[in-house]
Amino acid sequence: MRAGLRSHDRRGVGRPQNGDTRLCAKCGTATCEFNDHYRFEGHIVPAWICDAPQCRFREVVRRSGTSAVEDSRKALRDSREVRAQARRRMMKSSARNERTRSRVAKAARTPK
Ligand SMILES: [Zn+2]
């Protein structure tokens, strides 16, 4: 589970942070720097941008067309699904427990 550590930060662990650098995927010589407030076509998006002026490679991290609100709605839906799955698993496991318990009780009652 991801909870804890950075619980105030809704971003997943392992996501890049401002100022992170990596080798450019396009030119391979310069470094790309990450910025989570890159202005791109009128939207502010997290992106990697190449330092080399002749390259200017950029990779938008968030899928285009989704806003932070949509992302958080999706996270909410996903978390409800996780809860529902956990509840189903709990019900199955307590039913299995009950079956085992009655089987043991029946075996104890059966004369040898
Ligand atoms: Zn580059």
Would you mind describing this structure in some detail?
By secondary structure, the chain is of the alpha+beta class. The chain has one domain. It has one helix and four strands; from the N terminus they run ββββα. The chain has one helix at 68-109, and strands at 21-23, 31-40, 43-50, 58-60. It has a four-stranded antiparallel sheet, with no helix packed on it. The model has no long low-confidence stretch (mean pLDDT 84). Bound molecules: zinc ion (ZN).
SSE blueprint:
Layout (H helix, E strand, L loop, with lengths): L20 E3 L7 E10 L2 E8 L7 E3 L7 H42 L3
Antiparallel strand pairs: 1-2, 2-3, 3-4
The chain binds zinc ion.
The site of zinc ion (ZN) has 8 residues, from loops.
Tally of individual helices: 1
Oligomer state of the chains in this structure? single chain
Main-sheet strand order equals 1-2-3-4
**What is the domain tally?**
1
Give the distinct bound molecules.
zinc ion
Q: What's the alpha carbon Rg, rounded to whole Å? A: 25 Å
Mean pLDDT: 84
Which strand-content bin applies to the residues? 15-25%
Q: How many strands, what sense, and barrel or not for the largest sheet?
A: 4 strands, antiparallel
